[in-house]
């Protein structure tokens, strides 16, 4: 099956999984178990352009968000069960002779693994009680197909005669040897594969509960999918979750305006907006909730961003050559796959103004002729806009800024048009860099005269 197009640079640009904790993944990382956390990351690392996969993931998380069914998993309990099930010693034998030997041994010293076995059985009992109650609360009539699958798996296990008998046992009462040896053999031998399947289900449920919790905790929304072949992205209240008190923006991208030409002063919000949009598109393509009030999107076959590109010392690439190679790679991917969502932040910033102007104009003009993809391109070279005005499918957007007193002020709101503000030199002057250099020059001159 063809895979969703994404690369390491895009993961890095969007801070999807960085290790410092300030990542998009951190807003979902609320799983209670180790296995649940692994399943959650597995889901988030596997974007798709298969509508059935995306709808299933979204609908499953949405079901648990809507129902708020209790699932009180405890990490140490489930971890202990995992440890118990892989115990090296063979399952106990449930017979009178073995019981006599066991009881005799325990009179003089603890039998190796006896604590792990008895505690493992106790924690399984506790988990099965939780799952049994959870299974009773699951309603398949108002849920997606995945809920029916979950219930079928749970029913196939908890309704077994042996399991029902086990659930009726008083877990606070100490079991006799013949009793807990029978259950040890049941769980570590007879039903070991079923126990493995059950734990997989527990981890999947844990992962989906963590996804649903992001909606409750952070106000994310579940995306809706437009399964037509034309580009269509409509987002209300888009924001970047890693920015405290982030300003939200509305975005409309369609087949008639599939290329955004984005301008604005430094610090006006261009890069943050592009990261927020790229993150929302990515999350929608893993079936996760997105940081917005509402989102409807067509399904893309890939996401390529160029936001934090650096030079490549290992390959001997300058920053500009790295940019050129990145644009070339993107062009090859468009040719190969089509229907991509592409972001370029400050295209060709690594070269002189003349070359940047010519290369940017040529690239944007060529991209504008490709209708079945979406392109967002930010630049400081606002002069290009005049030559692009005649191209119908380019939407000109900018982030405004102004000087209030002696300070630059930004509203971080996406606006129609092209930026006319040039705050770069003002900020440079404000920091009095020339004054410092002049003082250094005078100081240096005094030293020489001595």
Automatic annotation (TrEMBL):
GO terms for cellular component: cytosol. Keywords: ATP-binding, DNA-binding, Nucleotide-binding. GO terms for biological process: mismatch repair. The keyword Disulfide bond does not apply. It comes from the Bacteria. The keyword Membrane does not apply. One of its GO terms (molecular function) is ATP-dependent DNA damage sensor activity. Residues 257-450 form the DNA mismatch repair proteins mutS family domain. Pfam families: MutS_V. SUPFAM superfamilies: DNA repair protein MutS, domain III, P-loop containing nucleoside triphosphate hydrolases. PANTHER family: DNA MISMATCH REPAIR PROTEIN, DNA MISMATCH REPAIR PROTEIN MUTS FAMILY MEMBER. This is DNA mismatch repair proteins mutS family domain-containing protein. It comes from Mucilaginibacter corticis.
